[in-house]
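**User:** Hello, beginner here. Are you able to go through the protein record under this note? It all follows right here:
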Amino acid sequence: MKNKKNLKGFTLVELVIVGTLMVIIMGMVLNLIRPMNRFYQRTQNLADANDIGGIVMDTVDNSIRYATDMVILEDYEGVPLMKDGCLIDATGVQSFKYKFTNVIILEEDMPRGKVLDDYDPNDSPAHRKGATGSILQAPVLTTGDGIDFSKLRYVGGEDIYNDYSARFDAGLNIVDERNKCVSLDMKLLKPEYRNGQYVFEKEVYNQQRDIELVNINLRRSSFKVEYYSNKAGTNANPIDYNKFPKSAPTSTATASQQELFTSGLHTFIFFTNAATDSTSTEVHVGVKIDGKTDYFGPLTYNKGDIIPASDIEAFKNFARSFEGEEDRGGIPFSLTLSKIESTLGENISAYESGTKTVTQDFDFIAYYTGVPNIPPLGSYSFIDHDGNVISSGNIVAQAISDTGGEIPAPNADNYVDNSGAEPVEMMPNRDPMFRFAEGTEFFDPTEEYSGNHTWYVAYEAVPMADFKFLDTDGSDITTLKFKAAYDYLDEARQHKTNVPLTGQEIGADPQIGALTVTVPAGENFERWEVHDVTGGSDIIVGTNNGNFDNSWRPEEGHSYEVHPITQPIPAGGLLPPGGGSSPIVVTPATYNPWYWPMWKFDIDLVNNESTPIKGATFEVTFNEAIKNDFATSQGMNCFGYTNASVSLDPSDNKILRVNIQGADWGQVQPGGSTRMTLQVHPDDQNSTSLDIVDVKCTGTTPV
C-alpha cells in the first residue's frame, strides 16, 4: 500500500491576492478615519476658541460693568498724556472732568508677551509662532504721571490665548438716554504653517458683546462716558490730539513696554470703579483760550449756584482781551471772538440768562475767527439807474500773494463798468429784458479786480409806441407807452437786437386789465380795437377778453388809439359771468391723458321772466366742429349739474344742445342768475381758436 501525502495549503498566487485585498480594505478604513479625525480637530479648535473668547469677554465684563466714569479712545496712536489720574490737554487742563483708577488696553500689533520683561521669543508656542493681539490692564497713577506700567498684566493671563492671534474693536453703543453699553468685538485667528512660517488668516472665533454700564445708566447725572475714534462708520467724536496729546515714555514703563508709546494703534478704555465724591459741594469754572495756555480762574461756586452776571462779564472780558492783530508766520491776522463754549458743549449764553445752574466742574473755551489783515486793493460801488449807491466797499485779496479780489455784486448781469461815466438813461420798462449800451463790458463776478471801480446799471432808450385808450363815449381813459422792440442778452451773453414786442405781450400787461370801461345798458364789453393814427389806417388787433392778436406788432414812433367794442347781450338773458368782460369766458387748457386741447366756457343764465324757473334748454354754436367721442366725464359735459344732458346736433357738429333740469338746479327767481360751465374738445387736435359765435335759449321750465 502506498503512503498518501497531504497536499493541502495556499499557493503563492492566493497569498498575493489576499494581501492585496487587505491593503485595499485598510486604505478604505483609513480614508474613513481621516475626515473624522479632521472634523474632531476642527470641533476641538472651535470649542477651545469659544472657551478663550468667553473667558476674556467675561473678565473685561467684570472689570468695567460697574464703572462710574469712562473714556474710550479707539485706535489711538501711542499712549495719551495723564497727570494725577486725569487725561489732560496740551495746555495742562483736564480734558475730562473725572479721575480714573484703571485702564484696559486693546493691543493688536505687538508679539504677545513682548510687553513683559521676561519675554522670550522661543518660550511658548504663541511666542514661537508670532501670535499677536491681547487685552492688557493696568492701574492709573492717581498721584503722578500716566499709567502704572509696573503693574501691567494680561487680562485673564497670557496663557489663556493659547497660540491664537487676537483682533479687537471697542465702541459705545447708546441704546437710549438711560442705556449705554461698551460694545466689544473679539476675533481669534488660528495659525497655519505655510512656506516656512506661520500665518494667521483662519478665523475660528468672532463674537460681539454689549457690556452694560450699570452705574452710568442708573446715575447719568453723576457719571459720564465719552467715546472718541477716527475710524469711519462710528458714532464717536473724532480724536483731537490737542485735547488728548501723546505722552513720552514714563518712568514706570520698561524698555519692552516703551514700544506702546512709539508705534502702533491701541484702544484705551479708561475707567474708575470708585464712587464719585457726592459729599463735595464745590464747583470750579474757568475760561481758557483755544490753542493757547492762557487761563482765567477757576472761580468757585456751590452746586446749584447761578453764575453771577459780573463773573460772566469777567469771563467775556478775558476772552475779548485776545482780540486784535496777531502775527502768524510774518503775516498779520485780525482775530475776532466768534464764540465761547463750555467743555460740556453749551454756549456761555445758557448761563448768562441766569436760569441755568452749575452742577459740576467745567471750563469755558474762547474760539476766534482769524482773517489776514491785508490792505485793500481798491474800492467798488454799484449805482442804480437813479444814481443811488446800492452797494459799496473795499476790494480785498484773499491771501497776501493775491493781486486781485472778488467783488460781491448784486444781480451782476445787469451791471457794466462805466467807471467815472454817467448812468445811461433808462426808459419805462414793462418786462425783465433790458437793452444795454453797445460796447459796454459787463461785470464778471468770477473775475478778480483791483483799483477803484464804479459799476452802473446801464440801459439805452428803446423804440416806443404810444397807446391812447378811449372810453365808449370817446373820452380819454389813459395813455400808455409800450416798446415797439427791445434788445437783450441771451444765456451766452450774446446781444439779441431789435426783437419786436408782440401784441399778445402788450395785451397781457396788467395795466390794460385794470382799465375801467363804461358799458351801455344791455351790452357787454367784447374787445379792444386798435387804430393806427400815425399810419392813417385802422387795424383791428383785438379778440375776446382784450387779448391782443399775437401776429400784430406795434411800430416804432407810431401813435395808436384803442377803442372799446361792445355787443348787445345775446338772446336768452345771458350776462357776463362774475363781472367779466364778455358774456362767455373761454379758458384754454391741455388735457393730459390724450394731449388734446380742452376748452372751458363759463355761462351765466339770467331769469328775465316774471316767475321763478327750475330749468332751461339752450343751444350753443361754435366756430369749429366739436369732438364727441370722449367719455362724458372727460369730454363734453356740463359741470355743476348732475342731471344736465349735453349732446351735439345730429346734423351739425358745431351746435351743442344743453338741457338742465332737476333738483340740483334749484330755483332762479326773477332777475336772478345761475352759472354753468361747458367743457368741450375741438374736433381738430391742432385747434387754438375755438370760440362761441351764438347762444340761444330755447325754453325754460317754470316752478
Summary: DSSP finds eight helices and 37 strands in the chain. Helices lie at 12-64, 125-129, 214-218, 259-262, 309-320, 349-352, 503-507, 510-513. The two ends are 156 Å apart (CA to CA). The longest strand covers residues 179-194.
